[in-house]
Amino acid sequence: MVKLIKIINELISLLHVQFYLTLLCCGFKYKTVTIMLSKWGGYYGVKLRSQFYRKTLEECGDNLKVFHGAYICYSTVSIGNNCTIEEDCVISNCSIGDDVIIAAKVSIMSGKNHHDVDILDKTFYETQSKILDRVYLKNNIWIGTNAIVMANIASGSVVGAGSVVNKNIVDENAIIAGVPAKLIRFRGK
């Protein structure tokens, strides 16, 4: 019986994904559609988002789990295998490696400096950058709850909860934390 329910769930979610793909074809913005998708809860929602992202992202590996309230802003994102994006995350333009865990309420930004703060005769809306940077998260990374990531992170790294990563982390197996994030120590030492 459980197996039958999973099969039915799979078929229904595939049909449901087609609806969201149709919205994209009708001119809806990618971010608008993914925010709508983020509202589905439970196992069904995780399955639905996984299927949608596998069809729409630049690259999407196996075993992606995107939980309730989390969404990906751009189809240019690439994600490796065995990645988890927990509740209420916002994922902008980035490449995510294999085996990455992103805890709840994390924001992965498209780099930094999105607005020119020194131009006084224009609004922030008018000075926003039209070119998005791409953040690279390598393999086997754990990013703690409420972190903000604006820069690249090397493989094996841990980002403490509430941290703001505004400079590239180039050394593997680093544990970083704080505002702004600084090296605390290396894993395994």
Any overview of this molecule?
The chain has 189 residues and is α/β, with parallel strands linked by helices. It has helices at 2-25, 30-37, 42-56, 124-127, and strands spanning 59-60, 65-66, 71-72, 78-79, 84-85, 90-91, 94-96, 101-102, 107-108, 135-137, 142-143, 148-149, 158-159, 164-165, 174-177, 182-186. It has a seven-stranded mixed sheet with strand order 2-5-8-11-13-15-16. The chain has a five-stranded parallel sheet with strand order 3-6-9-12-14. Strand 15 and strand 16 (182-186) form a beta hairpin. The longest helix is centred in the N-terminal third of the chain and has 24 residues, at 2-25. The radius of gyration is 18 Å and the shape is globular.
The assigned structural class equals alpha/beta
User: Could you list the spans in which at least 5 consecutive residues all have pLDDT below 50?
Assistant: none
Strand order of the largest sheet: 2-5-8-11-13-15-16
Span between N and C termini?
Answer: 49 Å
Please describe the biggest sheet, giving its number of strands, its sense, and whether it closes into a barrel: 7 strands, mixed
Q: Element order, helices and strands?
A: HHHEEEEEEEEEHEEEEEEE
Mean pLDDT: 93
Number of helices: 4
The proportion of residues in beta strands is 15-25%
- The outline comes out as globular
Work out the number of β strands: 16
Helicity level:
25-40%
Supply Rg: 18 Å
